[in-house]
Design brief:
alpha+beta; eight-stranded mixed β-sheet; 38% helix; 7 helices
Length: 276
């Protein structure tokens, strides 16, 4: 429900830019790499800013830098300034277990309610930046050995945290509801812990030729594209991107320079407001 405190798309984006700046400042103080990913990388390359219908931001971090970031937050050695906070499966949360397989930086001066989360998810959210840790792999055989495991854990988590979608037939709808009920009884934290453990069992190695983000398990990138960072303009500023950003976009999106059809130009199902 929209109120006088409801944020418009420009206000949401400004909140997310401030959250990203806070994250990059923290990473800079500790020599941690962080770069635009997915829709934010595409937006920088094609629009020099947000994709016109996008309402969140995405960044990548190498797994070893991501782990350092989590340790810094947990130790209290350093942190994000208020009102920002890092949420992840590794970080205890008073409201309940964190609900997704990658991290988020929240602006807690705002409040976000997602319409599609089930009642089993107890999480206090603000406007966010998604933080995706990536690792490296030695071969395509290794990729083929792990990608389906990550896909299955993501699917099971989705069944536990998101309201079931209506399917094309009544039988498929029933099957989806039954699967979702089973996953919710098991608890989404069970699947997320398995996901986290699997990722941590794949530490990055300098000699590996491939970069792999398990959040997008069907994609495999050349490690040389991530060997260092470049910079692209984004909403009047410059942000770090993989040095091979064009190759990354080609590999992940194909013909990324062309706009998708109108029916695919959609954002997330949430309402964001200012906190009192």
């Amino acid at each position: 429900m929209r109120t006088l405190n409801t944020l418009n798309i420009d206000q949401i984006r400004q909140s997310e830019l401030h959250a990203l700046d806070a994250l990059l400042d923290l990473c800079g103080r500790h020599g941690l790499r962080c770069m635009l990913a997915y829709g934010s990388l595409l937006g920088a390359a094609r629009h020099q800013g947000f994709i016109p219908w996008d309402d969140d931001m995405d960044v990548w971090m190498p797994l070893y830098d991501y782990n350092k970031l989590v340790r810094i937050i947990l130790s209290g050695e350093d942190g994000l300034p208020k009102p920002f906070r890092l949420a992840a499966t590794e970080i205890p949360n008073e409201a309940g277990p964190f609900h997704i397989w990658f991290a988020k930086v929240y602006d807690m001066g705002t409040k976000v309610v997602q319409d599609n989360l089930t009642k089993s998810v107890s999480i206090d959210e603000g406007c966010w930046v998604d933080v995706f840790p990536y690792t490296t792999l030695a071969s395509k055989d290794e990729w083929e050995a792990v990608r389906d495991r990550f896909s299955l854990l993501q699917w099971r988590t989705e069944q536990a945290i998101f309201a079931p979608k209506k399917q094309t037939t009544p039988l498929r709808t029933l099957r989806t509801k039954v699967a979702a009920a089973f996953m919710r009884r098991k608890g989404y934290a069970f699947f997320l812990n398995k996901y986290r453990d699997l990722l941590q069992s794949l530490p990055p190695k300098a000699e590996d030729p491939y970069v792999f983000d398990p959040a997008a398990p069907n994609a495999l990138f050349d490690a040389s594209w991530f060997a260092s960072t470049a910079a692209l303009p984004f909403e009047g500023r410059e942000y770090p991107v993989p040095q091979g950003w064009e190759q990354v976009l080609d590999a992940f999106y194909g013909d990324w320079r062309e706009l998708p059809p109108p029916e695919k130009r959609v954002g997330h199902p949430f309402v964001a407001t200012l906190r009192d």
